[in-house]
Amino acid sequence: MKKFLLFILSVMLSGGIAATVWATVIGSPHDLAPEPCAMCHTPHSGTGDYPLWNRTQEIQTYGLYESISFDMGPTVQPRNPSKLCLVCHNGVLSELVNYPGPCSTPDSAYDIQIAGCADLGTDLMNDHPVSFDYDSAKDLDDNGFPVATQERTTPSPRYAITGISTTKYWLYGDSGTNKWFECATCHSVHNLAVYPGQGDYQVNFLRSDNTGSLLCLDCHVKR
C-alpha cells in the first residue's frame, strides 16, 4: 500500500497537480518575513485601503506611459490594485502600519526597499501601461484585442479578458461597469499559476505561461 501511495504521489508531482495546489505566496519571492502575509495585510488597524492593507502609502507622482500607438489612453495616476503593487515596487522605503506582535512593536524585518530589476521606480514611461480603461473598440491599429466579458454578476459585476490560452485576465474598478487594466491583470501576486521556467527563464507571478509570448498574444492577438 505504501509503495502504491508513493507511486500516486509521484504521478501527481510529474503532472503538476501538487504544484498547482501548493502555488502560494509561501515559498515564493513574496515570502519575505517571518509572517509573510503581514508584509501586505493585517486583520486589524490597516490603512482602510483594500484588502486590509498594511503598508504605508506615501503619495508618489508617477511618470505615465505615452505612445502614438496607445489606443486606450490616456493612463491616469496608478489606481488600485496597481498603486498597492507600487508601494513596494517603486523603490521607495515602505514600512508596515501594524507590525505583528504585541502592541505593534516596530520590526525592521518587515520594512522593505526594493532594488534591482524589481524596482520599477516612479517613471513608468518604459513599462507596460496600467490604470487605463480597457475598451477593445478603440483598437485603431488592429492588435486584435479581445472583447472584455462579464464573468461575475454578484456581489458586483466583474469583467475579464479571455485569451487564446483560455486564461482569464481580470479587469478592475470601483464600480461594476469599470474595466481597468492594472498590474494584477497580468500578474498574480499570490503566485497562483504554475508554468515552465518560473523563477528561471520566466519571471514569477505571471497569470499564465508566456512561452512563445503566449501571454502577450492572448491580448495582442494579431501581433
The helix/strand class is alpha+beta
**Strand arrangement across the biggest beta sheet:** 2-3-4
Range of helix content: 10-25%
Radius of gyration: 19 Å
The pLDDT mean sits at: 87
| DSSP E strands, number | 5
Number of helices: 5
Biggest beta sheet summary: 3 strands, antiparallel
Order of helices and strands: HHHEEEEEHH
Could you list the spans in which at least 5 consecutive residues all have pLDDT below 50? 1-22
Taking the alpha carbons of the first and last residues, their distance comes to 53 Å
Q: Which of globular, elongated, flat, extended, rod-shaped describes the shape?
A: globular
What fraction of residues sit in β-strands? 5-15%
Structure in a nutshell:
With 223 residues, this protein is of the alpha+beta class.
Tags for this model:
3-stranded antiparallel sheet, two-stranded antiparallel ribbon, 5 strands, disordered N terminus, 223 residues, alpha+beta
Structure description:
The chain is an alpha+beta fold. Helices cover 17% and strands 7% of the residues. The chain has helices at 2-15, 17-22, 82-89, 183-186, 214-219; strands spanning 132-133, 149-152, 158-162, 168-170, 180-181. The strands form 2 sheets. A 3-stranded antiparallel beta sheet has the order 2-3-4. It has a two-stranded antiparallel sheet with strand order 1-5. Strand 2 and strand 3 form a beta hairpin. The radius of gyration is 19 Å and the shape is globular. The N and C termini lie far apart (53 Å). The relative contact order is 0.14. Residues 1-22 have low confidence and may be disordered.
